[in-house]
Structure formats: C-alpha cells, structure tokens
Amino acid sequence: LLQQTDRLIKTVPEVASVYGKAGRAESATDPAPLEMFETTIQFKPRDQWRAGMTTDKLVEELDRIVKVPGLSNIWVPPIRNRIDMLATGIKSPVGVKVAGTDLATIDRITAEIERTLKDVPGVSSALAERLTGGRYVDVNIRRDDAARYGLNIADVQSVVSSAVGGENIGETVEGLQRFPINLRYPREMRDSLEKLRVLPVLTGSGQRLVLSDVADIRVADGPPMLRSENARLSGWVYVDIRDRDLRSAVQDMQQAVEKQVKLPPGYSISWSGQFEFLERATAKLKVVVPATLLIIFVLLYMTFKRLDEAVLIMATLPFALAGGVWLLWLLGHNLSVASGVGFIALAGVSAEFGVIMLLYLKHAWEARIEAGKTTAAELLDAIREGAVLRVRPKAMTVAVIIAGLVPIMYGSGTGSEVMQRIAAPMVGGMITAPLLSMFVIPAVYLMMRRPRGSRQALASATTAHPDTRPTGSRLDSFAA
Fold first, then answer.
1. 12 contact partners, CB below 8 Å, separation of at least 6
2. Model pTM score
3. How far apart are CA 458 and CA 449, in angstroms?
4. Cα gap 467→381, rounded to integer Å
5. Does residue 274 or residue 183 have the better pLDDT?
6. Partners of 128 in the beta sheet?
C-alpha cells in the first residue's frame, strides 16, 4: 500500500520526490502504529509548476489521485505536523479523544464518531484508530504441570523470552560501531504454533521436555497499540477540515456527535489538535483585547483631558476596522489568531490617526479662541484648517504602510500564510481608517464644539466662506 501511494503521488508533475515511512522509530515522540503511513513530499521550484497552480490546488489534486480503499488522507506540512504531534499528539487540524476503561467500547464509540463526522460540511476526511485487530501469541503456563517437573513460572518464561524473543549475550566492536550479539532459536524452529509447542525445555534435573508439556500456546486477538491519558485508556479520531473555518466546523461536529453518539457512563470525549490551540488563544484574546482597548482609552483621556474627545476616538475604531474585515472577506481568509493580531495593530494605528487629527483641530480652534474669535464661522474655518493640514502627512503615512505590507500579500515563501493574515487587516484598514479620520472626525468635532443655537450661523458661514476666507493663507494654497 505504501508503494502504491508513493507511485500515485509521483504522477503529479509538480512532485520532485516522495519518501514514505510505515511503522515508527524506537522513540517515545513518534507513537505511530503500523497502519499509519507518513509520506514526505518535496515539490519542484514554483517556476516549474503548471500555470495557475497553487499549493491548495496541489493538495486537492493529490487528494483526488490518492484514493486507496481503507486509507484516509491528511495533508499536513512536516514542521507543523511535528509540532502538533509533540504538543497534543494529534497531527490533524481537529482530533477527538475518547477516554474510558474498556477498549472494545472505546473502539465502538470512535467508529460511531468517525461515521458521524464524515457527514459534517467541511470535513474532508475522518479516521478513527482501530483499537482491535492485533494478533498475539499467548503462552499460558500451567502451574501444576510446571511444578510436577520441578519448574517455576520464571523458568518457563525465561525459556520463552530467550529462545523465542532472543537474549543479548555480548557485544562486538568494529571500529567506532558496536553491535549486540543476540542468541535465540533459528527462525524455522519458531515460525508457527506447532513448532513453538515442540520447543525443547530443559529442567534443573536434566529432564528434556517440550513447551507444550507445561504451557498452552494459542493465537489471541488484542489491541495493536495502547494509548492512555490521565491514567485512562483512550482512542483517537483524526479529522481533516478544508474550505471552512475551524471554529464553526468544530461547533457543528460537536452538535452532531452530541445528537448521534451516546456515551456510556464512565466515558468522556475531548476535542484536541489545532482546535485546542484556538480555544486557548481565544481565551487569552478575550482578556488581551479588552485590556488593550482600556489602555488606549486611558491614554486618550490622559492626552486630551476630556472624556468626550476620548470617547470620540474610541467610537471611530469599529468603523476604521471595517476595511480590514472587507479585505479578509475578499481574500477568503477565515478569522484566526493571526488576523486578530493584525486587527489589534490596526486599532492602534487607527487610534493614532484619530489622535493626530483631533490634536490639529484642537490647536486650530484654541488659536482662534485666544484671539477672541469664537463665532460659528471661525469654528468652521478652524476645522477646515486643521483637517487640511493633515492631508499630506496622512497620505504619506498610508503610502509608506501599504508599500511595506503589499509585498507580504504577494509573498509565497515559508511563513507567508501567517504573515498574510496579519498584514491583510492592516492593508484593508489603511483605506477606511484615514478616510474616517479625515472626513468623519472633523464633522463630529464640529457638532461637539459648535455654539448652542448656531445651526443657522453655521449654514450661513458655509455659504459665505469662499468670500470671507483670508487670502494668501496656507489654507488657500491647499484649496487651490
């Protein structure tokens, strides 16, 4: 099966090499059963790919080609695969862990969960580990018969372990290499139950017996591998998700399992994998985001010494973030932890835009107050002057930020997927945040600072402004 899957994968033109592995290494960090194949695929350079081919399209094509009965495909980058395996033991985006006391019951529950999850939208594959199907040679020692020949349990077990399993009796050194010397019966004397039953056993008195004289030998079914967590036996279900966000897919899966799978008393289900990281990060963001907004609000209040102006900046933040939301939707990105980091950064930049705009408006208006010009027309002039003074600096700031982030959006190297999801909110927000600060904040500030009963005065000032504007001012040069 491993050779077949390797040959199928190699038929894709973009594949440079394929290396498959069955079984596991002698390491506690690689608990892979024999029926789990790990195939490492190396692609050719991107300039040798077919026109229009992307990584997602390659995964779809590989999944379509590698269709082997009895095998379920999960396509995971190698580094992320190792990190997930070491962190949670689950190498797929979502894993379901069933814990209990009886292996047969756990195996039945995981099989039911596998069938249930395959019908959930967005689930490309679901595979439950088979906890039964292992074959073992059981040697059941008959204590009475062994005692009749003067043998105890340890004597018979030592014959079985050394003659069949082998025993290291020494070591050979060849240069820098060391090799153990293992002694046991030849394979032709231990490759069937009949031959195992006639294995010679020598008693302490020199009597020669066969193994069947003191033990019953048979083949028994058992688990191919045992897993345990929190001192309880467990069975795992690997779930791969495609073309859907992780949170909503897991919520649908949890609802489906709750409705269709009935758990006996003493058994529990836990959801792990990348979803476990998402839950942990979401819990932290529930604390970090409000704390960030609170810090921003306190800093704004300390800057302006006015509650209404601090509230004005904070009220504009949700609208300033709209551009980032729209760009994420256009790119087809799901909201993730990386996107959340991007929105936090965008909120800081948007607040900065609003602060600078409000400071210039305040300075222009305070200058007129000091000169004794407090009419509605002067307020309108001050707002125009303060807002216009920020047009060129804001344009330069936005241009620099976009110029620095756009190359990330077009990158395709290692880590580009995460960086794009951080940069996308910033790029989209650089359209709405400056427009909001240049158009909305001056208008709101005008309503906040206008004298009472001055709507008529403001209307007349707006009409008369082209004639009353002082000539030769900086404002005129920008208007021209």
1. 58, 61, 62, 65
2. 0.62
3. 12
4. 12
5. 183
6. 237
pLDDT at 474: 37
Give 224-268 as a DSSP string.
S---EETTEEEEEEEEEE-SS-HHHHHHHHHHHHHHH-PPPTT-E
Give backbone dihedrals phi and psi of 19, rounded to 5 degrees, phi first. -130, 115
pLDDT at 302 over 50: yes
Q: What is the pLDDT of residue 444?
A: 83
Cβ atoms 221, 133 nearer than 8 A: yes
In the predicted structure, residue 148 carries a pLDDT above the cut 80: yes
CA R_g for the chain: 36
Token pair belonging to 355: 């602060």
Tell whether the torsion through CA atoms of 29, 32, 33 and 34 is positive or negative. Answer: negative
Encode pLDDT of 85-138 as tens digits: 777 777 777 889 999 988 889 989 999 998 898 888 888 888 888 887 788 888
Q: For residues 367 and 370, what is the distance between their CA atoms, to the nearest angstrom?
A: 5
Per-residue pLDDT band at 473 (split at 50, 70, 90): very low
Q: Is 416's pLDDT higher than 70?
A: yes
Q: Which residues are paired to 196 by β-bridges?
A: none
Count helices and strands (H / E) in the chain. Answer: 18, 13
DSSP single-letter state for residue 202: E
SS3 101: coil
Q: Which of 18, 69, 19, 71 is nearest to 44 (CA)?
A: 18
First CA to last CA distance, the chain: 76
Q: Is 221 exposed, middle or buried (0-12, 13-18, 19+ CB in 10 A)?
A: exposed
Strands (E), 113-231: 123-128, 134-141, 167-174, 177-183, 200-202, 208-210, 215-222, 228-229
Contact indicator for 382, 356 with CB cutoff of 8 Å: no
The one-letter amino acid code at 339 reads: S
Quote the pLDDT of residue 272. Answer: 84
Six-digit token string for 374: 């407090």
Structure tokens at 41: 């695929």
CA 251 centroid distance within chain = 16
* pLDDT given at position 470: 41
Burial per residue of 442-461, b for 16 or more beta-carbon CB atoms within 10 angstroms, e otherwise: bebbbeebbeeeeeebbeeb
Which DSSP string corresponds to 400-466?
HHHHHHHHHHH--STTHHHHHHHHHHHHHHHHHHHHIIIIIHHHHHHHHHSPTT-HHHHHHHHHHHH
